[in-house]
Amino acid sequence: MSEEEKSLNFIEHIIEDDLSSGFPKDKLRFRFPPEPNGYLHIGHASSICLNFGLGLRYNSPVNLRFDDTNPAKEEQEYVDAIKRDVDWLGFSWDAEVYASDYFQQLYDWAVELIKNGKAYVDSQSAEVIATQKGTPTQDGENSPFRDRTVEENLALFSEMKEGKYKEGEHVLRAKIDMTSSNMLMRDPLMYRILHKPHHRTNTDWCIYPMYDWTHGESDYLEQVSHSFCTLEFAMHRELYDWFLDQVTVDTKVRPKQREFARRNFSHTVVSKRKLLQLVEEEVVTGWDDPRMPTISGLRRKGYTANAIRNFANTIGIAKRENVVDVSLLEFSIREDLNKIAPRVMAVLNPVKLVITNYPDGEEEWLDAENNPGDDNAGYRKVPFSKELYIEKEDFKEEANKKFFRLKLGGEVRLKNGYIIKAESCTKDAEGNIIEIQCTYDPKSKSGSGTEESLRKVKGTLHWVSIKHAIASEVRLYDRLFNDETPDQHKDKDFMEFVNPESLKVITGFVEPSLKTAKVEDIFQFQRIGYFNIDKDSTAEKLVFNKTVGLRDTWAKLQQK
Description:
The protein is of the alpha/beta class.
């Protein structure tokens, strides 16, 4: 086996085996088939990268197909969001198609199944039908309506389409085998009545096809060669094939369904129903809240498309489900932003620092590298003055030898600036330090070439000039849930694990170069982490979202 063959995942091996068996490469076609009943999340990103990645690998078309067969839950807003997310991830689809494009063809085929004695109208309630299905160890019971005549079934099905019946009054079922060991084969539903307007067909239809009837036939109509689903659809494959048997002809490509494991992620949920609950109960501000695992939420938080694609490639495709630690996702964005994010200075927990021997009223503009790892990133000017902000935690009156920041009698270098020495500090009535008095060495300016500028001190602090600082809203995000698997507790609701500290809003101070920053611009706040400009920003107030800290927790987990 070649090295290239060894690197293939099992999905790619399936395709390679088919090609080796004579399947024409020019007949390969894939699809990504989301239901527009919510926003895409990080789990969908893996499926997007799989299907569109296969398209790129084999130079084959990939359809974006919306499985829009449930007007009660689907909206145009979700269609638009899905298209935006797939496009943002960097993928282009060959055709934008909808299951609703095929409503008439699906109906016509269903009529043919009725004529062939393979489908019938059942007039029992959903509860009775479910009871008659039996159990995995007990055969199902035939419906009393299973042997209706073809003529009666055709008439009833036509009247269902015409809107003559209420929801739940009738359904169309396939006539297969009520004793099958696969319960999905026990006369599954094909159509139900729904008197709700559809986002595309409005009120043209009041009967809607079920997923199992729709999906495989849509694949067939589009001539999709390989239909990849998550593992929960493995038991559906037999039914997928049975439905295809009713409509396929030898001269056309017959789709092949195969399954891969869905990915679960720590400290979050990816069920659309549960994500919708978070939105509706206002635990979050919307589908694009930066705490949400949605692609739009990650984008708003400052994640890049490249980082998400790299993450999807890293976790790969598997045959068994597992929980992926979100720290790996954070590792991916940290690795990407380290290469591209401009460095700036910001202070989030400020204390005033006064350089007592710096001339009153004087200011100077220091050179600062935009990104030390990028030779083409250039420099910017940062203002320096007598009064600065530094982080409170960067100063202690007394500290041990392992504290390399500022302490009384100790020296540090101010980033891009001078060496300072702490001489004294002022406290309020409660004993809190409100001002630090320092002196500076005027010959120690970074990059000046003087002997003093080359003098080494162990600590370097970031800072902002108080006179020039821009007060900004900074949103600090933490895990939305304080449990690793919040939706896997049988005796507790996942909402019980919502982290009340998942968002902290503070006022921070940033250097003036950020005044012209635009929405979604990303920066590294030196010594703190990565932040981006939120869409709530205005000309009067910048709003920053914390994307990820500088600390790599995933790498440390790997070392344990």
